[in-house]
Amino acid sequence: MKDYFYDAFYNAFYGISVMDVIDIIIVAVIVYNVLVFIRKTGAQQLLQGIALLVAAMIISDLLNLHTVNWLLKSIVALGAVAILIIFQPELRRGLESVGRSQLINGTVGKKDKEEAKRIVSEIITAIEGFSRDRTGALIVFERQVSLNDIVEKSGTVIDAEISDQILGNIFYEGAPLHDGAVIIRDGRVHAAGCVLPLTTQKNIAKELGTRHRAGLGITEHSDALTLVVSEETGIISMAQDGRLDRFLDLKTVEKTLLALYLKQESNQNFNTWRDVMDRFRRDINA
C-alpha cells in the first residue's frame, strides 16, 4: 500500500517544473480575480444568459440549424461589445489597479514618521470634532491616481499644511467650501470644494446622502481613500476600492491613516498568503 501511494504521488508530480507551478499560480490568480469581479458587479445572471446562448449555438450547429446558428453567433459577438460597455467603469478600475502594481511602478517612499504622526493626529482631532458636533465632512486622500481633473473642474486650490483648524474652517457650516470635498495630496490640504462623481452602486443604503455617495463614488474611479462624517448622525465612515465601511471608531481611522502614510504600497498588495486569505474572506462575506 505504501508503494502504491508513493507511485501515485510520483506519477502525479513527475515532470512538473518550477515554471509549471508559476503558470498554475498565475492562472489561479486570474480566475480568482475574475470570480471576485463577477461577484462584486452582480454579473452572475448576465453570464448565465451568455452561457445559455453559447449552449444554444453549439446545439444549433450540431443540428445543422444554419440560420439559427448564424443569428446566435451574431448575438454573442454583439454581447461581447455590450459587456465592455456595461462594465466599462469596473474594467477601467481593474486596469488602473494593474497599472498601480508595484511590479511596474516600484514602491512608494515612506513619509517621515514624526510628520506622519502629526498629520494623522491633526486629522483625527478634526474628525473627532466633526463627529461630536455633527458637522458634515468629506476628506479624500489622493494616492497614485491623480485627481487633477476634479480639482481643475470644481475645486479651489489651497495647498495648506494640514491642521485641525484649517479643516474646521473649511467644513464650518456656512463657509463657502463646506459642501464640497477636501483633497489631501502629499500630506497637505491641496484643494477644497471639490465635486466628486457619485457611486453607480444600486444597493447602497437609502439613508445615505450625497456626501456618502460621492465619497464612495471617487473610490470607484481611483485608488483614493475617503473619510466621511455624517451631518445628521455624526457617524464616521471610510470608503476604499468601491466599498464603504460605516460606524468606525477613531482608533480604527487612526491606524488606517498611519498605515497609509508609513507603509510602503507593496506591503498592502497581498505580499503574503495571509493577505490573500484575508481578502478572500472579505470578498466572500461582502
Which keywords apply here?
single chain; seven-stranded mixed β-sheet; alpha+beta; 286 residues
Description of the structure:
- This protein is of the alpha+beta class and 286 residues long.
- It is 58% helix and 13% strand.
- A hairpin with a 6-residue loop joins strand 5 and strand 6.
Number of helices: 12
Q: Name the strands of the widest sheet in spatial order.
A: 2-4-3-1-5-6-7
What are the low-pLDDT stretches, counting only 5+ consecutive residues below 50?
101-111, 264-276
Radius of gyration (CA) equals 24 Å
Provide the helix percentage.
Answer: 55-70%
For the largest beta-sheet, the strand count, sense and barrel status come to:
7 strands, mixed
Order of helices and strands: HHHHHHHEHEHEEHEEEHH
Mean pLDDT: 81
Secondary-structure-based class equals: alpha+beta
Q: How much strand content do the residues show?
A: 5-15%
Question: How many beta strands in the DSSP annotation?
Answer: 7
What is the CA–CA distance across the termini? 45 Å
General form = extended
